[in-house]
Amino acid sequence: MGAMTLVVDHREATLKLNRSQTVCLSYPNGEQHRVGLYALQRIIVYGEVDLPAALLRACDKAGISVILLPRHLLLKTLRQLKTS
Predict the structure, then answer these.
(1) Comparing C-alpha atoms, which of 73, 83, 14, 5 is closest to residue 44?
(2) Mean pLDDT over the full length of the chain
(3) HEC profile for 27-60?
(4) Burial class of residue 43 (count of CB atoms within 10 Å of its CB; 0-12, 13-18, 19+)
(5) What is the pLDDT of residue 20?
(6) CB-hemisphere CA count at 13 Å for 63?
(7) Is 8 exposed, middle or buried (0-12, 13-18, 19+ CB in 10 A)?
(8) 36 with 24: CB under 8 angstroms?
(9) What is the pTM of this model?
(10) Count of CB atoms situated within 10 Å of the CB of 58
(11) Contact partners, residue 40, CB within 8 Å, separation at least 6
């Protein structure tokens, strides 16, 4: 398990896990980002995001936390994570 936090905060973003254990983040405008699954410590998601079960299972197996938040709690949660 890595030390990186992935924050997904764009409406209609899509997360996928490819065969090489890379998390692919895609936005409706075509922008894409990739990060290795094992570089992550946690994924924080808020808003309407496509999050497939295969990615959730892989995160569980790798010990990566997945946090689903309503919008009004995002800033409070990020502040708490910085102090812990």
Answers:
(1) 5
(2) 90
(3) CCCCCEEEEEHHHEEEEEEECCEECCHHHHHHHH
(4) buried
(5) 95
(6) 5
(7) buried
(8) no
(9) 0.82
(10) 16
(11) 1, 2, 4, 5, 6, 23, 59, 62, 64
Report the largest interatomic distance among the alpha carbons of the chain, rounded to a whole angstrom.
35
Q: Side chain identity at 24, as an amino acid letter? A: C
In the chain the domains, ranked by start, together with CATH numbers, are: 4-78 (3.100.10.20)
Q: How far apart are CA 83 and CA 21, in angstroms?
A: 30
Tell me which residue has tokens 């896990």: 17
pLDDT over 90 (residue 69): no
